[in-house]
Amino acid sequence: MKPGALAKQLEKLGLRAREDFLLHLPLRYEDETALAPPGEAPPATPVYLEARVLRAEIAYRPRRQLVVHALWGEVPLALRFFNFYPSQLRQLQRAADEGLLLRAYGEVRSGWFGAEMAHPRYRIVREGEPLATALTPVYPTTAGVSQAQLRARVREALEAEPLEDTLSEAMRRRVALPAFDAALHALHEPAPDADRAALVERTHPAWQRVKFDELLAQQLSMRLAYRARRGRAAPALPRDGALLTALRARLPFKLTGAQQRVLAEVLADLAQPHPMQRLLQGDVGSGKTIIAALACLAAADGGWQSVVMAPTEILAEQHLRKFTEWLAPLGVKLAWLQGGQPARERRAMLAALEAGEATIAIGTHALFQKGVKLARLGLAVVDEQHRFGVEQRLMLRHKADGGVPHQLMMSATPIPRTLSMSYYADLDVSVIDELPPGRRPVKTRLVAAARRSEVLARIRDACTEGQQAYWVCPVIEESNEGTLQTALDTYETLSRELAGLQVGLLHGRLPAGEKAAAMTAFAEGRTQLLVATTVIEVGVDVPNASLMVIEHAERFGLAQLHQLRGRVGRGARDSVCILLYGTRLSEAARARLKIIFENADGFEIARQDLLLRGPGEVLGERQSGAPLLRFADLERDAALIAAARTAAEEMLAQAPQRARRHLARWLAGRQEYARV
Ligand code: ADP
Ligand code: MG
Fold first, then answer.
1. Which residues contact 226 (CB under 8 A, 6 or more apart)?
2. What domains can you pick out in the chain, each with its CATH number?
3. Ligand 1 atom closest to Cα of residue 322
């Protein structure tokens, strides 16, 4: 292969700089430090052996192959290669002529004509050549890059100038970690008596060091991003302006303790002259919206505009209703933006925002679009933030002329502690950990689909008593059309089966006006049963609805089920969520249903979700913005995360240059760990 071609293949493995090779760590090891005694090959276990080459030839049965006949001590041995180069044949023939030896690593089987090895790794050697003194690493690789090439490049990287240990002695001792240089040698060329199990399982102290360094780099990157933000300007907003005080005085309910605490945190941030970037977490129904409204008023009091963005039209409209109810009496002007809005209305809204006449813009993705200009954007609220991509959120930031607006991100999908300590370490986090008074826990029932008729009777009873119910239609994997059709069919069937009840239908493809009408009819109690797709998953709030049926619940994700279930249990009544499940459940589906049945706490559900699926999937949008950790594992190495966090603070304070060198080693010119 040409040198350029090799570089290209190496690049595919992410190997460019010296650091990349140093941190390209073995998957496993082979022991070439000792030779197996001739004839001794335990079944299904690779051995390292030495044999004299007798003859090399091409055979054609059962298929074309290179066969090498050798003598392993007294034992005849055949080595077979199905893929080979002509040069290989010549090399082996020469070895036979010169009476040379070969050393091969692989499994020995007994074949037709005695002992055989199939495509073993081998090397031609002369008599008495010394054996390896360290275990031989096996690296992750790709087509066209051999283990020998990788080993050579890694050795080169290891043996170039000495490696700086970016951790101080004191820090290393505190976390009980080996020196960096020693750790890398232990991983790339372990001594023959090294604990191979610990190396492969990645529990060896050398692995701890590498994982710690990786987590430290992540923490440093997050802290630096955090500091950079603190260095930018944003308007300092008053905590006790007229509008804010007025709404607080006339709230329809008393804020819970958790809401008061979180509000104080948000207002304290907003009073600072640099942009807030706060994640407001609270389980479904914990009352995040009012906090958002109060924050918008702090902006208004300072003479600044806000945008409130929601991932769906239904949710945006609900915000509009709530904000109108709370803020219109105070004379605050709202603007409303959504896709498919009449052009004239849209123009009027845009003009009002650009002129600064409207104080708060509420809407969906439509808020991002070109032409949306705000005279004085001071605060951006992103509801259900995990539904938006990093790019979209960045665009919102650019809507502010010059400065950066404060950002309040809200989410009912709780981020497990280990995730928030790592991937979200650059955000400030507030948690509403208390539900408004009077909420009753939702009872969850698992019911086989075969008992559907009992469920129908139950809906009829509940609705006759004046309650309302949701019927959530199953998602059809990989097909929106299928999901839509199912919703339409379900609506027809249920309307027939429950004749006499008012049944409504809500799905994502309805025109905006019809969606709003269906939602309003249900909110006002004019329809009793709402057949819906997962469009109701986020944020919909109808306290009188106390029964929810989720059809084919096994097809939903855990976060989704938790969100859906959160749509009931918002009123004074006992609520029930019925999970209908089909036959033939997969292991994973069974595990999900068990978790949702046994747990009501969103944090616990999210934690179990993380265990079940791993951070890659749970992270969702963050994934696209940040490379995941290569070595550390958020669950297994949770203790290291906490230590890395403390170390990052200390390092930035005491040895900022060393901190930057540490980060450079791990990023090696790549992107940051996170961009928010
Ligand atoms: P979420 O956190 O899921 O977005 P919402 O903000 O939609 O929750 O609030 C859920 C419901 O609880 C709304 O009807 C809201 O008006 C009401 N609510 C919020 N805070 C309180 C409170 N402190 N006391 C009583 N009801 C509240
Ligand atoms: Mg909400």
1. 425, 426
2. 34-131 (2.40.50.140), 242-432 (3.40.50.300), 442-599 (3.40.50.300)
3. 16
